[in-house]
# Entry
Amino acid sequence: MKTDNKIMLTGNKAAAWGARMAQVEYVPAFPITPQTEIVETLAQWFADGTLQGKFTNMDSEHSMFMAAGAAAATGVRVFTASSSQGILHGMESLYTITGWRVPLVLVNVSRALATPITLEPDHNDVMSTRDCGLIQLHAETCQEIFDFILIGHKIAENPQVCLPVLVNMDGFYLSFTREPVLIPDKKTILKFLPLFEPVYPVFQASQPMARASAVFGGSTYSYFKMQHNLAAHHAEKVFNDATAEFSELFGRTYEPAEKFHMDDADFVFVMSNSFATKGKAAVLKLRQQGIKAGLLKIRLFRPFPVAFIAQALCGHERVAVIDQNLAPGMGGITYPEIVSSLYPYENRPKKIVSVIGGLGGKDITESDFMSIIDHMKNSDSKTPLYLFDQEDQRAFQRIQKIANVKKEVSSS
Amino acid sequence: MYRIRLHGRGGQGIKTASQILGTAAFYSGYQAQDFPLYGAERRGAPIVAFTRISEKPVLERGPISSPDIILVGDETLLDDPQAAPLCGADESTAVFINSTLETSVLQQQLHLSSSLLKLNLTELCIQHLNKGTVLSTALAAAGARLVGMITLEALLKAVDAELSQQGIGSIQENLNLTKEIFQNLFPVVLKPRKEKTISPSEIILMEQANIEEAAPIILSPGNMILRKTGNWRVQRPEIDYEHCNHCLICYARCPDGAISLGPDDKPEIDYDHCKGCLICAQECPGHFINTVREAGVES
# Structure
């Protein structure tokens, strides 16, 4: 296969190519829209001999994540993918395998959660895995998906980390969108990510060991959990080392968060994933209109790069954290994380507002970004800004009319 | 940047057309992005796809609401309010329609401020490929020619690459078709679109509603009847009543409940909702349900 060339790939294909160039040896799979194209592509490559190893169709995401963790415990390179309801179904296994301290890469293709059920994206699915103890990298472009899978395996397999890495992309806006992706040559990739040879204990024939111990009394449990926490924090340094090496070999530089027109920005949007592209376009347009806007795009979400984010945002007047997720009864999920990262600093932004938008694939428009600017300017804006406008209301009412809500019932 | 929107039906190769166009632009040295949009639907349902072509990196994602070029592969969609293929067309848009009608006739019907172009792609597909139902190459070739910046060489390479990837055998025939369409059309000159300044959205402060409104509860049952899916059909099942013995297996097997019982317990097909899956024809023990090509599909 000819490599080191740029080809048009969907986000899903870019993920499959990432796994292919990482020479993964085991893929347990279960289909779910909008992720299926990833495992379909890998199934083809395992079947035709492009990839050496084992591809297994599982009976659910619950057993799929268990199989992924168990295979990783034998010292092979493991890749798997899921989305939305599948992630929720496998949730018990995700907590379990991170506790096993095994390395693998898992791609989540973001899709909003039921009920009501939909196929379109928001981030409540990936946010549900926030506290599982995974390392998380969130991608804005198809190139980032490919690169983050290579970087992800490198971080996961680091002996000081030994944790699964989740790479996130938005369904539809990235998973089904094709754009040019550079696939580097195999040799250089091998330099960055050599074949996996674990230097720590793995399951082997005739060498009994256990990884899923039961503990009582709290002290032992606390010890292991706190060790897990230390390893997750250490992964930030490993991320920085890995991306520095990546930059040297491939020329693409990935900081924990990307600063877009931040230097003189008075108004900063904090975003993640594919809608950050829309944010960048809005920043450029707002600047044409004399508004000094900037954008901070979070790439490394776990561990949360607290110091990096504080350094990036301190000194700027106004910040809006745009959450494409919703914790009912609280608001945006990443907003409190940004605020608590900034709180210890005296030169923290004067105003940090929360914005909730893009739920269930709803677009965030140029006009919405202007509304966010207004919200940042408003001295009275203590509550989150929920992006829902007259046009959304009309679209909802058209559907509501068909569902025919009986007014006399609702008046009681 | 060129923003191109393609309309057609599931199975007509509209997504592939957007990808051939994207790859051709990419081979011509441009930044490209393509993206299809369809729900949990199937063959025959309206689908839309998008291709963006730019000299600079594309800082846009998702659907295109103000297209520079609209490519309509299936003219039966023109009056489908759900597909609304002409939505967002203005004086800076060029609309291309695969049609047998003359441009002047189309213009009279559509009253567009956009420039209007047509070519009978279906006829050309029949000539070159012996079938007029798959428009991927033809629609991509039309789009590539209209934007002007794509070379014939890059387009041919893209057709070859995309179709080979899908394991399609008739590559040479598709390349000949590409050449003919490329020679039959000319690049369009678009009126530059005025950049609008950004103004804020009309954000509303949502108030709490009662549970009947606040939750996805449907109080009015049976509203699927409002969703007419009859125009998804490529082929229609027709019951041969002279031989039908009213065994009602078709009635039991129809996955959409589009077969009902008429007087004398005769099965009757609801053509407003039958999607043309033809399971009834498959299941009829006496083969008394014929399949007939829908009018308008090949013409």
